[in-house]
Write a structure and sequence with these properties.
six-stranded mixed beta sheet; three-stranded mixed beta sheet; 6 helices
């Protein structure tokens, strides 16, 4: 499926696909097989699930076309010794300005960082509960326009162009991923998050995982409980990855729980288990 065509022969592209590289004076970009003169990347989900987003910041224009399936194949860097089959993300990024080839490469990096943000914000995790940072299959094309009359050098996150790129790619990938569904392990309700960490959620009243906090009444607002679970699992992840010293991380996590829940917390160094037990005593069934 061709998503953009060019007749002036002033568009160039770089591609991260296995047969990619640099292509000069292309006639178009597409998902799947393209005709002669164009460039293409594989689609890892039906083309009908493609999402398109355009972001304009002043004279900076970025257009992203994305087909994303995060229901399988998502991984965390360094945690998988063999590729995970299935799923993947394909992105075509069209930038309406001229730029060096190195800036095109930086635009691809910014786009890949946006994909990681989608995985983190949607809480996509692997079978071992690790927060995923990417996927086994990721293909990307970045297109520049040499005929735009504007020449830019910056495509990093701290430039206007980088911001436009990140917003366009993030929103397009997220929209397509939600159309194609997420893995069952990525439920974002409180019991599902705790269950992924092997916490005892069955003892929490109302731990029906199909409906977040169904039929329960919280002494603390439900939104606060969900935010606390998200924060504590993030601290727990950071400790397991070696990003936080264990002693300091546990101390910070326990203080976070105490500030929201109040009262005396159960003993223990496993933050998620402590939180599950604490919620057991602070969540009460809804009165009949």
């Amino acid at each position: 499926m061709r998503v953009a065509s060019y007749e002036d022969y002033k568009h160039d592209a770089i591609s991260t696909s296995p047969n990619g590289g640099y292509s000069e004076s292309i006639t178009g970009v597409s998902f799947g097989t393209d005709e002669e003169g164009g460039v293409s990347i594989p689609a890892f989900a039906p083309e009908t699930t493609m999402a398109y987003r355009e972001v304009i910041l002043g004279r900076n224009v970025a257009r992203a076309f994305a087909i994303a399936d995060l229901s399988t194949g998502a991984i965390r860097a360094g945690h998988n010794t063999v590729p995970v089959a299935g799923g993947g993300v394909s992105v075509i990024l069209e930038i309406d300005s001229d730029m060096p080839m190195t800036t095109m490469a930086r635009a691809a990096i910014t786009s890949m960082e946006a994909v990681t943000c989608v995985l983190q914000d949607l809480n996509v995790r692997d079978s071992r509960g690790n927060q995923c940072s990417g996927c086994s299959n990721l293909s990307m094309v970045v297109v520049r326009n040499r005929g735009s009359g504007m020449f830019l050098h910056g495509a990093g996150k701290h430039s206007k162009l980088g911001q436009a790129i990140a917003e366009a790619v993030y929103n397009a990938v997220r929209a397509s991923a939600l159309i194609n569904g997420l893995p069952e392990s990525s439920g974002r309700d409180v019991p599902s998050i705790l269950n992924r960490k092997d916490a005892d959620v069955e003892s929490i009243p109302g731990s029906d995982r199909t409906v977040a906090m169904a039929g329960v009444e919280l002494p603390i607002p439900a939104g606060h409980a969900a935010a606390l679970v998200s924060a504590i699992t993030s601290v727990s992840d950071a400790i397991s990855w070696g990003l936080l010293p264990e002693e300091e991380g546990i101390s910070v996590g326990r203080r976070m729980m105490a500030s929201v829940i109040g009262g005396e917390l159960p003993p223990g160094d496993d933050l998620v288990s402590v939180l599950a037990e604490a919620l057991t005593h602070h969540i009460q069934p809804e009165a009949e």
